[in-house]
What we know:
Elements: H1 7-21, H2 38-41, H3 62-72, H4 86-100, H5 130-139, H6 145-158, H7 165-170, H8 173-179, H9 186-206, H10 230-238, H11 245-255, H12 265-273, H13 284-294, H14 297-313, H15 352-358, H16 362-374
Helix pairs in contact: 4-14, 5-11, 8-9, 10-11, 12-14
Amino acid sequence: MSVRRSPRSHAANSNRRAVKSEPDEESPKKRVKKEPSADDIHGHEKQPTNKQPRNKSPKKDLTSQKLAKLESYSQTPYPNYKRPTPAECKHVNDLLAKVHGKHERPVDIKIERSDGTERRGAACGEVPSVLDALVRTVLSQNTTSKNSMQAKRDMDAHFGGKEQWAKIDAAPVEELEDAIRVAGLAPSKSRTIKGILESIRQRKKEEGDDVKTEDPNKSFSLDYLHEMPDDACMRELVSHKGVGPKTASCVLLFCMKRASFAVDTHVFRLSKALGWVPPKCNSRDACYAHLDAHIPADLKYPLHTLLIVHGRNCARCSAHKRAGLTDAAKCPLKELSRKPSEEDELSDEDDEQDSALKHASPDVKQAVAKLEAMS
């Protein structure tokens, strides 16, 4: 049986709805301060926490962060991943050498060939001066050797000769930026170079040896690094803003003739394809730390340069499919390398190596078994 509402009750409900829909006189955003209760007054206050306010927590200096990261990479970040073995490194080096020729470190580092043109190695820091090597390597970041070498020539021409560090140091950053524009990322690279020169000048000043000599360019030098051990050189180099482990490692490898395995984009890509780092490794710095710990010292120079040459020129291994690449079917690494995938990522480090081989082709598994038997 339906119950009819009286007109009076219907009107009352309408009034209540109308009252509810009206805006409050006081803004809802305003919060009324809660008065302390009796419990709060008599010893039941909230205990202070150890958490620091976010906006008051001190920010780590960028250099400190880089040095801390570098310190964490003093050993491989993947201690349970045992590849590459020394036998694997030698095997890959020999395979690449058959195609691209043997790569040996030059006894004497020379910038120019006999015909006066610069050697290609100069682009990545294979020059006598540590400062010159560092600047050249900064210019080579994220660009081709052709562009970085042209940028160095343009810089030399603009400032009146090679290694005119005093003039570059005194010039506005915009002037240097215009001179090296062909290298790309000119604003950041010019600031990095200016920052390096400024730190050298400040160091001289702190030592009481101001940069005021007959040839002020000679005062701008990093050659004192030759007297320091590898880890100290790395810390010194990466302390400069814009200089990371890859750039510093190139200076050690090419200029200072140290056993350091620099990891550029080609080395990183091929190392992952070969299974030399865990599939979840997505950082060049982590890749550098792992490979630098595993690759034998006598193979670091030839293997680094061979992987770069192969990565640039092999149709199968190059990141850019362009004309003039070598036939993919003739790739010497085709039986050993595979393409890493996101499915290979792991959560348990103890299973990293087994998982990498689990997803490999039968040919890769057989090749790894042979190499393990050789070692």
